Amino acid sequence: MNRFIKLLIILLSIGFPALSAGEGSSESIMRDSLSLNDQEFPIKAVTLYTAGLAQIVHETEVDGNQVLAFPVEHKDLNDILKSLTVEDLDGGIVDSVNFTSENPLSATLSELRVNPSGSPGIIEFLKRTQGEEISVVTDKGSFSGRIFSVEESRNAEGSRRINLNLMNQDGLSTVNILELRNLSFKDTLLQEELLDALGDIAQARVKTSRMLKISLKGTGTRIVRLSYIKAVPLWKTSYRIIVDEENNPRLEGWALVQNTGNEDWTNVKLSFVAGQPNAFIMDMATPRYVYRETVDIASASPIGAVEYDSGVVPNRSSSQLSSKSSAPVMMYEESELMDDSYYGVNESYAPVPIVSQAGGERIGNFYRYTVDSPVTVEALSSAMIPILSSPDVGSSLVLYDPAQGGVVFKALRLENKSDAHWAAGPVSVSEGRSYAGDALIPDMIPGSSRYISYALHGSVDVQKIQEPQPQRIVSLKISDGMMHRQDKMERKTAYYIQGEEEELILIHPKETGWNLTEHPEIDEETSSDYRFTLKDWGDKPVIVSEEYLLSSEYSLSNFGLTDFSYYLEWADVTPAMKNALERMAELKRSEVRIKEDSAALTARIGRLERDQSRVRDNMAVLEYDSDLFKKYSGQLEAQEKDIQNLNRQVEEKEQELLKARSDLARFIGSLELN
């Protein structure tokens, strides 16, 4: 690219800021540029979100009119441009925020006379430079001229040859590209432009940081606060559940935070937000150009008057108010002593509860945990902080789920009785001081409950036996010429339970269309299963009976004799229904008999017509006055009379058939039976 043009672009980018907040911002930047400094921006607060984002807050001091230089890593630039807020807390004015913009590489290269992007081969590249004047050196000498064309050919031996055709005042000359030793453009500007373009392509792969120039106006020493959102590792929650001697679970929650940046978080106010805010990335830094279609000039009639319907101002609901409460903290109670070789006879059954280091606050639909004391997390390091300690979060039980291989699990019913949002995370379960198993806690909002299983149960066994019953008719109805039929399918599932426990949750799969007819108490119901609570099962099996009702409709006019016979054999058919079916069967038999008679007559006509055709073929070879010809003539005459008589009978049968069908349809239409 022309160096003069590049210098002009740099001057313009300095003179016209890419992002400003107020009139006269460029003037302010130029006037206060001498005040720009690289002072530190210590991090004061970090709020981590479960969407993989963090809100970072910096504070620093300024004096008078000043331009702050705030470095931003390339990967964070778009998030910061989308979310940055600047506050001058002591009465100053935020004038503007400026940063250098770079044209997209594709836009820069598209303006060149020859675009070298895409790593073109020599043939493709030379085709792009058609018409340019060049000088080439080969083993056979030097040549010059304007590029006319590039073509590929093969000689008689099949060897490949790529010809560069050059045009000059002496005419057209051909150079074998495979023999080129040097090629240069006579136009030095084009040569420099290509070199600059290749440099731009290489530079585009280098991700450099950007400097935000924040212009502030005011008097005296003031505090300035910067706040923005950036991508960080997802903050994680892990839990511990300790089940005491009375099978009461206690929940402890720990937040895991990872500082993968290059800056220490020293004595920062650290918060964790449980919730799922919408989040996305948008390229705010790269200039965008809108494609505009090129159209021809056209004439058109002017648009007439335009009217708009009256609008209605929508109601605006008030925003949710924040409610604040401290995170629950469990008070330790002495339990019975453990006789354990490691912990000793004076150790309690369960470990001492942790004390939560964070307070809780509900903000709208989110729940924020804020650590009580300042926290330090060095760069490229992690920390775990206890944020939750809640006693009595549910109960211990046994759970059977046939979808998990038909095994019995030790489980817990967790109940979130607090105002806190429990973020999803792994949980390690201990029975007293002994590890019992792992589980996963889903997102649990206040007031919700969940089952979690953490180990196989060794002393309770459940056997499932299912007995399907054959499908049977349960009701028939005739209305509007239709047979409305309802069938029922039934199945009985028996669960044989061995072993003793205080409570067992039996999960039974739910299938579309199947309804319960006999079952224990339902504790919960989801879209895929029923959950029964069993307290005492004894030696008898737990029975779950279900039924499936299937409704279907059939047109009685399409019934055959076998269909009527099938329904007449139904054991629960009512007398009125039976009489109606018998009458319809009788009318149907009459219709069938008439159709059979008509078909027999039609068959006789067909045989006679075929015989007539045979006789005519024989007569064609006979003399008209022969005795055999006369005999055949008499036979044809007799057969013709028979055919006419049979056709009359067929017509009569067709009338009888129409009447029989009409009688059946009229009878069917008159029926209304349950």
From TrEMBL:
Keywords assigned by UniProt, alphabetized: Coiled coil, Signal
Signal sequence segment: 1-21
Ranges in a coiled coil: 629-663
Official protein name in the record: DUF4139 domain-containing protein
